[in-house]
Design a protein that fits this description.
Blueprint: E1 5-11, H1 21-26, E2 29-35, E3 40-44, H2 50-59, E4 63-68, H3 74-77, E5 79-81, E6 84-86, H4 88-95, E7 100-103, H5 107-114, E8 121-124, E9 129-132, E10 135-141, E11 150-154, E12 157-161, H6 179-190, E13 197-200, E14 210-211, H7 212-218, H8 227-233
Parallel strand pairs: 3-4, 4-7, 7-8, 12-13
Antiparallel strand pairs: 1-2, 2-3, 5-6, 9-10, 10-11, 11-12, 13-14
This protein binds fe (ii) ion (FE2).
Fe (ii) ion (FE2) binds near residues 145, 162 and 170.
């Protein structure tokens, strides 16, 4: 099956949106996940140069059949940040009419930031799957960075958005963030079975991805085992 899987990790400002100062500064990862046999693929977190991401998929012989959004921040779905407007998912929807998969709790936040009508977004619960050809992508609700943050699990890979980085985790001091929820989400991710490789939402570490087993050992946010220990590490 692994040769059927099409998977690309793309760094903003290097692999796409080259020359865009925000894309370069933010070091976001977008991902393409597809089935080479059926030719379908989805894109994760298209915030910059959405048409370029579409072209990359098309160049590789795949057609886009959906968007997966980890959370509502403009550097993941588009919107206004640092005085710039990122067209993100909206630009993508102008080029191709595909479903945008978000966690139900995040749906109003994504609608507000992107100015895409809530009725145009597809809400999901924890444990739902999005099918891309022969592959099922499981949507895991991992609140903390935002209320409806979600991670994507498929083929022993975990796309972790801003919930878990190779080093550290996402901030919890933005609107809707919750430090205790983040602790519980990190414990949940730490307990996922299998030999997973974690692909984060930003490149903030030496390596762009890492085995969950090594993140469990090396990443300081994985050390606290109780909420009390978490509070000592992350005082509010
Ligand atoms: Fe974020």
């Amino acid at each position: 099956m692994s040769e059927r899987l099409y998977f690309r990790q793309l760094l903003s400002g290097r692999d796409y949106a080259v020359g865009d100062p925000i894309a370069t500064q933010m070091r976001n990862f977008a991902y393409l996940i597809g089935d080479r046999e059926t030719g379908e693929c989805v894109v994760v977190d298209p915030a910059y140069a959405a048409s370029e991401l579409l072209e990359i998929a098309q160049h590789d012989g795949l057609r886009l059949c959906g968007v997966l959004a980890t959370h509502h921040h403009p550097d993941h779905v588009g919107g206004t940040m640092l005085g710039f407007t990122l067209r993100g998912v909206r630009e993508l929807l102008e080029k191709t009419d595909v479903p945008v998969h978000v966690n139900t709790i995040e749906l109003p936040w994504v609608a507000s930031v992107t100015e895409i009508g809530a009725s145009e977004l597809t809400g999901h619960e924890h444990g739902d799957t999005v099918t891309v050809g022969a592959f099922d992508i499981e949507l895991l609700h991992t609140p903390g960075h935002t209320p409806g943050s979600q991670c994507f699990l498929f083929d022993n890979r975990l796309i972790a958005g801003d919930t878990l980085f190779v080093d550290g985790c996402g901030r919890t001091d933005f609107p809707g963030g919750n430090s205790d929820d983040m602790f519980r989400s990190l414990r949940y991710l730490a307990g996922l079975p299998g030999d997973l490789v974690v692909y984060p939402g930003h490149w903030y570490s030496q390596e762009p991805s890492a085995a969950l087993s090594s993140i469990r050992d090396q990443n300081y946010v994985m050390r606290p085992q109780t909420l009390q220990q978490w509070h000592m590490l992350m005082p509010s």
